[in-house]
Amino acid sequence: MVTESPGTDPHCSASIGDCRWIELPVFPDQNGNLAVYDNRHAESMFRVERVFFLYDVPSMASRGGHSSFTTSQLLLAVNGSFDVTVDDGHYRETHHIDKPNRGLLIPAGIWRELDKFTPGAVCLVLASTRFAEEDYVRDYMRFLTLSQYKQRRDT
Q1: pLDDT in tens, 34-60
Q2: Dihedral (Cα; 5, 90, 134, 114), 10-degree rounding
C-alpha cells in the first residue's frame, strides 16, 4: 500500500538536488567499448528490479509526466539523446542525456518529463521496483499537492 503522509512520502522530502549523474565503468577495446552496470552499483544507487526502454519516440513527443512513491530510476541514452526535466514541486531543472555510460539517477518523489528525442534515440531505464500502477502519480496538480509540505518547510 502506498502512503501519502508527510513523514513517509518522498514527495515531501526529495529535491532535484537528489538527482545525480551516475558514470558506468567503461572497458575500451579496439573492437568497441563495453559499459557495465551490475548490482554492485546498488551500494551507491539501488538494486535493479525492472528494465525497460523507450524508442521510436517522435521528436515533438514527450514521455514520463509522472513521479512515484517508491520507484527510483536511472535513465541512460543508449543511442541518440533526449532531455529530462526533473521537478520537486519547488524547483525545475533540465538535463541533456547523450552518453550511453552516463545516466541520470532520479529518486522517488521527483516529477520527470522526457522530450527532445533525436531520431533513433533509445532511453534505457533501470528501475528499483517492479511495475505497480498505484506507485505512480500521473497528475501534476496532485504531485504539487503532495509536495506542498516540502514547499512550506523550505520557505
Answers
A1: 998 877 765 667 888 999 999 999 988
A2: -160
| Cα–Cα distance for residue pair 86/131, rounded to 1 Å | 20
**SS3 category, 144:** helix
Say how far apart CA 53 and CA 56 lie, in whole Å.
10
Q: In this predicted model, what pLDDT tens digit does every residue of 50-89 receive, in sequence order?
A: 999 999 999 889 999 999 999 999 999 999 999 999 999 9
> CA separation (Å) from 59 to 77, 92, 116, 118?
15, 21, 5, 6
- Contact partners, residue 152, CB within 8 Å, separation at least 6: none
